[in-house]
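FW: tagging you since you asked about this chain on Friday. Here's the raw sequence from the shared folder, copied in full. Didn't touch anything.
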Amino acid sequence: MSAEDHRSEPPPGVTVEPQPSPGVTADAAPSAGATAGADSLSGGGSTASSPSLAFLRQIARVPEVVPAAPIDADESGAFLAAGEDPPRFALRRRLGSGGFGTVYEAFDRKRGALVALKVLRRPDGRAIALFKQEFRALAGIVHPRLVRLYELHRDDARWFFTMELVSGTDVLTHARGEGGPDEARLRAAFREIAEGLAFLHDAGKLHRDIKPSNVMVDAAGAVKVLDFGLVADLNAPTAPVRAGTPRYMAPEQAAGLAVGPAADMYAVGVMLHQALTGRLPAQGGTAPAPGPAARDAPEDLDRLCRELLAHDPAARPTAREVAA
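HL: got it, structure written out here
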């Protein structure tokens, strides 16, 4: 089994470190929420809409959230039979599956730790290129609020990469609980979301699919932003496309116009509205109406929510401003 290093030179200010062991140790009990959370208050899946991106719409997504499931003997044996002897990765359970690939919880014998392992389902030329693109987007970017990618591998015809295994729950479940918003948790979580996005934007990357199921909170209350299948390079001259999850798209994103960091912050505003009210913002024309978030919401959070949902991208606060 060979590991291929596809990391490019990082942008200024981006830290590249030796690959450490992930925070979940080998003797940790598997968590039902590992690497995925139930997006219970959201609507619909991600899309990428353009004739040139029909293929991307079909496969360029991290697997949809499904209940974690055990792997059967055939699945485990077929994957582990090839490559090293003994195999480096022992699959524990399947965490999610979609058109693009399957994510497993696996034990990495070399690291001595549990990791998340994403396997490309159909390794044709175009799918491999997109798979590499997803890995390269974050492989050299290291921040406590962004899920850490480790290694890209090719084993015969199979392609897969490993990443940090995140156990926890989605940010809305964490911030709201069963009795409505927990203000202390909400403030801490959204500040950490902004910290991660500020670092990502400073590194010249745009997430484009911020939504509750892509923001996990671990048992210690720490936020991790996941799923970089739709990440875009802010400095690359690419044609505007309609990509993301419809109810979290900024107006300019939904219209298929060029987008910048403000589009990610609009999605943060949608999540903040959900955290404060328990519901998505009301649709108003092509975008949710930025009215009061909740009658009893703290004034500063209500104001922040309305600013983040501004129709004009220039009027939205930056991630760095929200994190301050």
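FW: The CA atoms of residues 117 and 162 lie 4 Å apart.
HL: agreed, and The chain has two domains: 6-13+24-163, 168-323.
FW: great, closing this out.
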